[in-house]
Specification:
single chain; MetI-like fold
Length: 299
């Protein structure tokens, strides 16, 4: 009898486990992988970064060793695959080593400006009122000047050198990043979850850390990546004008400056640093566009 009862009783089954929805960053990565242009640009940027890191191991020659007997050798010369510059130095080695300082001058000012600009913009956008007005009007004073003119003016006032160029570029990029941070934070501040957190008694620092930063740092970061190419071009321009790197340090902008007199003798060799700047800048721009599209949930 007990066996019949057991057989007729319905078997109890546990409810099915709901499928775990993919996270936000998983969706960003999935959308980014479908953008072939952005992926190719990212691979180019990665290759340039690795080339700069391991320049001492992959460069075929000493980038500062000169030979007046081999000056301005054309591209394809045995022992000089990309020719030689005006002092007989191997162009391939100088381009490889120059990527290190060019990337440094492109990334570091933007990163420092990202930190300070985000703090200024988030604070101004969250607290609003007179604090926002005073802060953003002060930022607008620097934002009103063209970036090239402001960078040259600051570098000229501070003096030539890598540190002064770094400081000048950082000051140039803080205002636009602060403006973007303030705009995004102003939108997030009016959201329901921020109002609920404020009504629950949470202090301003907790609300910013828990509810605001997670929603504003993404757009600010994407915008900052688009400034890396601008920073590289401005740093190269400062070196070209004699306000940045000093010879014989290999840097793409400085190489353009020193090779400008050889453009009628070996134009292809003289154009190589400019080609390197162009490829790196366009790769960072395409990578930034791909990240922006991938982080846009509506897209």
């Amino acid at each position: 009898m007990s066996a019949v009862t057991a057989a007729s009783a319905p078997a109890t089954t546990s409810p099915p486990t709901p499928a775990r929805s993919p996270g936000y960053w998983s969706g960003v990565w999935r959308r980014f992988k479908t953008d072939k242009v952005a992926v190719c640009a990212g691979l180019v940027v990665l290759a340039i970064i690795l080339m700069a890191i391991f320049a001492d191991y992959i460069a075929p020659a000493d980038p500062t060793r000169s030979s007046m007997l081999r000056r301005l050798r054309p591209i394809g010369t045995p022992g000089y695959p990309l020719g030689a510059d005006e002092l007989g130095r191997d162009m391939l080695s100088r381009l490889i080593h120059g990527a290190r300082l060019s990337l440094f001058m492109g990334v570091v000012p933007v990163f420092i400006a990202f930190v300070f600009g985000s703090v200024i913009g988030v604070a101004a956008g969250f607290f609003g009122g007179k604090f926002n007005t005073i802060t953003m009007r002060t930022v607008d004073v620097f934002y009103a000047f063209p970036s090239v003119l402001l960078a040259i003016a600051l570098s000229g006032a501070l003096g030539a050198g890598i540190f002064n160029s770094l400081l000048s570029l950082t000051i140039v990029f803080i205002p636009p990043i602060a403006r973007i941070a303030e705009s995004v934070t102003t939108q997030v501040r009016s959201m329901d979850y921020v109002e609920a957190a404020r009504a629950s008694g949470a202090n301003a620092l907790t609300i910013i850390r828990v509810h605001v930063l997670g929603n504003v740092l993404g757009p600010i970061f994407v915008y900052a990546t688009s400034l890396i190419s601008v920073s590289m071009i401005l740093a190269s321009g400062l070196s070209f004008l004699g306000l940045g790197t000093k010879p014989p340090t290999p840097e793409w902008g400085l190489m353009l400056n020193t090779l400008r007199t050889a453009i009628y003798v070996q134009p292809w060799v003289a154009a190589l640093p400019g080609v390197a700047i162009f490829i790196t800048s366009i790769s960072f721009n395409l990578l930034s566009d791909g990240l922006r599209s991938a982080m846009d949930v509506k897209g």
